[in-house]
Amino acid sequence: MAEISFPLPDLGEGLIEATVLDWLVSPGDQVERNQPLVELETSKSALELPSPQAGKVIRIHGAPGETINVGEPLVVFEVPDNTAGIVGTVPKDDAPKRRVRLSAVLDED
Amino acid sequence: MYESTTATLEARAATENQSVKLSMQQALNRALDEILSNDPKTVVFGEDCGRLGGVFRITDGLQAKHGEPRVFDTPLAESGILGMSVGLAMAGFHPIPEVQFDGFAYPAINQIVCQIARMNYRSRGTLPMPITLRVPSFGGIRAPEHHGESLEALFAHVPGLKVVSPSDPHDAYHLLKHAASRPDPVIFMEPKSRYWQKGDVDAADGGTLTGARVVRPGRHLTLVAWGAMVARCLQVAELAAEDGIDVEVLDLRWLKPIDAEALATSVGKTRRAVVVHEAPLTSGLGAEVAQLITQSCFDTLKAPVDRVTGFDVPYPSGDLEDEYIPNIDRILLGIQRVLEYRRG
């Protein structure tokens, strides 16, 4: 298994920090991609931050009320080695499926 | 073709002579580890290659073992990664840079084409560029734009570059060590959709590392492929066998220089050929392969060489790539076209 750190992403509009309002996941939770992780408040708005990936949450940073800078660690996930850090998905070697049949008269000249 | 003795001998002497099951990711990681251990002039770098170990974990653990001066992260600037490679090579280093994805090589085309490929020529042999540029290549992983492209024809067109693509863990291990031992710049195209499939790696015996390799012998038709398409062509060959067609699969491996002799030998025997690649059709490497086959086998060919390729469109993201990358049915149809062909 490998660990992947998810730092607080750039939330746009030039914001450089956010305050944790409430955690929606706990260490040990298995989360899916796009599942809300945490409620944050910036100087512009409150927002729910979706998970960038599936995996097991093993650490969270920042208690409610604490402020985190963009780029600082927010969540650490544990994921299987072969998906750690990858962009896209790992293709499976499925049993080959076909619709086309070959027909040929092979004249062995 | 050039001699391959250095890496072969080194690999033979290096380790135990039994094969182990490794994924291509593990095989490449092990090869890099050994290159770094054996050659103090080697440096490995790129975006996320250091602390993270690479987005595909090819450089996993190498910074911790070999130190940050030799395995390090770069800024997100491919022109800088390859420009720095030029300077390092001029200073006597053996750089193994990575561009994180195929499509990220475009910003570094100037450094690759105008500097790396011709510095040796320009300097009358006094400034060789022993650079192995690792490029996770081709599609098949549902990634966004610029993450699924096949640039072999672009690179192969540039005098001074060599281009190679392994199709399985064994070749990945040995070809990377071989490429890194060469005095010339080598573009090393790793089929990213094959990183995680395991295969036997015999570290002690790499076999012949130059030229193409017959991965499945057959009598009726030759499928020519490289990178990720080799595995697919092997599947197609099994299916064709159900219909009584005995297909040979030739893994081209080296895309510059192309092993014209292996093409002549294989198609000279089967008398029919289909080239399969993910890259777009027009000016793709399939055209070059078809010409080489035609040149050597014109008198005995039973049909024109056919091509089953991607389409002349930007590489499509997501599920659409299943329609773009040559699939089993499209390759079978290509085979059928060739089998049906009659002269006159």
Question: Could you please describe the fold and organization of this structure?
Answer:
The complex is a heterodimer of chains A (109) and B (344). By secondary structure, chain A is mostly beta strands. Chain A has a single domain (2-83), classed as Beta Barrel (OB fold (Dihydrolipoamide Acetyltransferase, E2P)), CATH 2.40.50.100. Helices cover 0% and strands 39% of the residues of chain A. Chain A contains no helices and 8 strands. In chain A, the strands form 2 sheets. A 4-stranded antiparallel sheet of chain A has the order 1-8-6-3, with no helix packed on it. The mean pLDDT of chain A is 85. Helix content of chain B is 37%, strand content 19%. Chain B has helices at residues 5-14, 24-38, 62-66, 78-90, 109-116, 119-122, 152-156, 169-180, 229-242, 260-270, 285-297, 321-324, 328-340, and strands at residues 20-23, 42-46, 71-73, 94-98, 132-137, 162-164, 186-191, 198-201, 213-216, 221-225, 247-251, 254-256, 273-280, 306-310. Mean pLDDT of chain B is 94; it is low at 1-13. In chain B, the strands form 4 sheets. In chain B, strands 9-11-10-13-14 form a 5-stranded mixed sheet, sandwiched between helices. By secondary structure, chain B is of the alpha/beta class. Chain B has 2 domains: 5-201, 3-Layer(aba) Sandwich (Rossmann fold), CATH 3.40.50; 213-340, Rossmann fold. Chain B is built from 13 helices and 14 strands. The two termini of chain B are 38 Å apart. Chain B is globular, with a radius of gyration of 20 Å. The chains are: A mainly beta (109), B alpha/beta (344). Chain A: It is an enzyme of class 2 (transferase). Chain A: Its EC number is 2.3.1.12. Chain A: Its cofactor is (R)-lipoate. Chain A: Keywords: Acyltransferase, Lipoyl, Pyruvate, Transferase. Chain A: One of its GO terms (molecular function) is lipoic acid binding.
